[in-house]
């Protein structure tokens, strides 16, 4: 899927990144390039010189054979490669910049060093990746990896997705990166910690059990919704006990599989116990929420509508061991309040 600088461009191409869901904003874009430190050899994550190396991690686009603990890691995928590298304490020297955020990184991404941020809007800048001298490239969240893999793997061992672009679960992504980094035990511990947090939140909020929801972006005045229970964001809400509304599950796919466009005269299809939307601009939100048909929705009338801010929408739409705790803390209190207003 092309790395578009606007969400509406992205919505026209395939993949979860386009959607955010046609997602998250004119802005689910990876743009800009900033200089960062070219640290000397950094400390490997969770491994000594002999721990489990060499290791080979198989992937759909090819196998990554890592002969020694990585000391210079490049996160070349969209968002979650950076998340996982940071969560596992990898020596990150390069990452893709996300123009949604002022400094190019999500609020939950707090690198200890100063990695170079690359502009991937027009394609992977191979010369900049090579200039960072990585000894491991994480690219399981690269929506153009089918085209990029051959060139990336000539620069350094490159971790591909296992099943397909946007199809690997957050647990699997963390564990496979852990294998490549020599940090599998750390990855397993992170997965367990996040699972415990999800279970704790669900136990604390039984009002969410069985509640239906719809979730999607409003882009350029058009409304989209996820329609697949297998979507990562649907799985997120499902882990809290909620269910994707049957009304949207039955909708036909838009240009992006697993996503459906909702005609402006059929906003009733979005109605559910809880309605969750995100917007590419504040003006778009203001205009959409002023529509008479929107105001008539049951969820809106009883206060069970949630307009998500962009960081939270991205945390939920692109779940990882790093973004999920942020997303849970930000969205669950609002979900619980909305669910208690069930008709």
List its traits.
Rossmann fold; 5-stranded parallel β-sheet; 343 residues; 6-stranded mixed β-sheet; disordered N terminus; single chain
Which fold name fills CATH's third level, the topology of the largest domain? Rossmann fold
Structural class: alpha/beta
Query: Which residues sit in consecutive blocks of at least 5 with pLDDT less than 50?
Result: 1-43
Q: Summarize the amount of helix as a percent range.
A: 25-40%
Instruction: Let me know the average pLDDT.
Output: 86
The count of helical stretches stands at: 14
Query: How many structural domains does the protein architecture include?
Result: 2
Radius of gyration: 20 Å
Question: What can be said about the biggest beta sheet?
Answer: 6 strands, mixed
CATH level 4 superfamily of the largest domain? Nitrogenase molybdenum iron protein domain
Beta-strand residue percentage: 5-15%
Q: Give the beta-strand count.
A: 13
Q: Could you walk me through the main structural features you see in this protein, from its secondary elements to its overall organization?
A:
The structure is a single chain. By secondary structure, the protein is α/β, with parallel strands linked by helices. It folds into two domains: 31-193, Rossmann fold (3-Layer(aba) Sandwich); 205-339, Nitrogenase molybdenum iron protein domain (Rossmann fold). 35% of the residues lie in helices and 15% in strands. It is built from 14 helices and 13 strands. The chain has helices at 7-11, 16-19, 80-87, 126-131, 145-155, 170-181, 184-204, 232-239, 246-249, 282-289, 292-295, 298-301, 310-317, 323-339; strands at 55-57, 64-66, 73-75, 92-96, 116-118, 136-138, 158-159, 212-219, 222-226, 243-244, 259-262, 274-279, 305-308. The strands form three sheets. Strands 8, 9, 10, 11, 12 and 13 form a six-stranded mixed sheet that branches. Helix 6 runs antiparallel to helix 7 (184-204) and helix 13 (310-317) crosses helix 14 (323-339). The chain is globular and about 60 Å long.
């Amino acid at each position: 899927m092309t790395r578009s600088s606007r969400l509406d461009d992205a919505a026209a191409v395939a993949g979860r990144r386009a959607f955010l869901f046609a997602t998250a904003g004119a802005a689910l874009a990876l743009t800009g390039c900033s200089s960062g430190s070219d640290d000397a050899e950094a400390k490997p994550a969770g491994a000594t010189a002999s721990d489990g190396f060499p290791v080979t991690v198989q992937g759909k686009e090819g196998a990554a054979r890592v002969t020694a603990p990585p000391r210079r890691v490049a996160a070349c995928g969209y968002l979650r490669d950076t998340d996982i590298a940071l969560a596992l304490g990898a020596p990150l020297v390069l990452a893709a910049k996300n123009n949604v955020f002022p400094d190019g990184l999500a609020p939950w991404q707090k690198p200890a060093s100063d990695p170079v941020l690359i502009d991937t809007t027009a394609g992977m800048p191979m010369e900049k990746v090579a200039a960072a001298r990585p000894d491991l490239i994480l690219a399981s969240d690269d929506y153009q990896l089918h085209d990029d893999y051959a060139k990336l793997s000539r620069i350094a061992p490159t971790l591909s997705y296992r099943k397909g672009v946007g199809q690997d679960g957050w647990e699997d992504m963390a564990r496979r990166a852990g294998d490549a980094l020599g940090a599998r035990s750390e990855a397993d511990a992170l997965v367990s910690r996040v699972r415990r947090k999800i279970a704790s939140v669900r136990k604390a909020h039984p009002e969410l059990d069985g509640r239906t929801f719809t979730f999607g972006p409003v882009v350029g005045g058009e409304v989209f919704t996820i329609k697949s229970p297998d979507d990562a964001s649907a799985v997120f809400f499902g882990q809290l006990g909620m269910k994707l509304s049957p009304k949207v599950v039955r909708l036909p796919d838009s240009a992006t599989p697993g996503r459906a466009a909702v005609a402006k005269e059929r906003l009733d299809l979005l109605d559910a116990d809880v309605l969750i939307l995100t917007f590419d601009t504040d003006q778009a939100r203001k205009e959409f929420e002023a529509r008479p048909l929107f105001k008539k929705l049951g969820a809106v009338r009883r206060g069970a509508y949630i307009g998500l801010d962009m960081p939270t929408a991205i945390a939920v739409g692109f779940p990882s061991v790093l973004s999920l705790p942020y997303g849970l803390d930000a969205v669950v209190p609002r979900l619980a309040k909305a669910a208690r207003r069930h008709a």
